[in-house]
Amino acid sequence: MDAIDARLLSALQRDGRQTVTDLAAAVGLSPTPCARRLARLEAEGVIEGYSARVDQARIGFPVSVFIQVELESQSKDAIDTFERAVRGFDRVMECHLMTGTRDILMRVVAADLTDFDRFLEDKLMRVPGIRSMRSSFALRTMVRRQVLPVRVSA
C-alpha cells in the first residue's frame, strides 16, 4: 500500500458516498487510475464493502450490552459451534475470541431490559457449551470510531 492508497482509504472512510471523480480529485489522481486502485483494493479484500452508519438508538436499540462468555471447553469444535450459533443472532454486533479468564466478548444491542432478557433466554442460553456468562450494560459510549488509521506499507 502506497501513500495514494492510504489517502484513498482515509477519504473513503470519511465519506463512502463520494463519486470516483470527487475521490480522485481528493487524492490527486484522474478518475480512471483512481477507479483501478479502488477495484484492486476491493479485489484484495482491503475494502470489504460499503454501508451506511446507522444510529442504533434511533432505530429502536438504545441498549448496548457487553457479555463475557466462558465456554466449557476451548477446543476448536466448541469454539466453532459457538461461533456458528451466534452468527445467526442479528442482535450480536461484535463477537471476539479473547485471551484471559473469559473466552468470548460480545456486544449485543437491545430495545430494553425485557428485550435483552428475551434474547438471553431464547437465543444465547440455548447455545450448547457455555459454562458461564457475565453481562455489563453500557451507560454511554465515550468513543466510537469508524475510521481506521491508515499507514503506508514498507
Automatic annotation (TrEMBL):
It comes from the Bacteria. Pfam families: AsnC_trans_reg, HTH_AsnC-type. The keyword DNA-binding applies. The keyword DNA-binding applies. GO terms for biological process: regulation of DNA-templated transcription; response to amino acid. One of its GO terms (molecular function) is sequence-specific DNA binding. One of its GO terms (cellular component) is cytosol. Residues 1-62 form the HTH asnC-type domain. Keywords: DNA-binding, Transcription, Transcription regulation. InterPro entries: ArsR-like_HTH, AsnC-type_HTH_dom, Dimeric_a/b-barrel, Tscrpt_reg_AsnC-like, Tscrpt_reg_AsnC/Lrp_C, Tscrpt_reg_HTH_AsnC-type_CS, WH-like_DNA-bd_sf, WH_DNA-bd_sf. SUPFAM superfamilies: Dimeric alpha+beta barrel, Winged helix' DNA-binding domain. This is Lrp/AsnC family leucine-responsive transcriptional regulator.
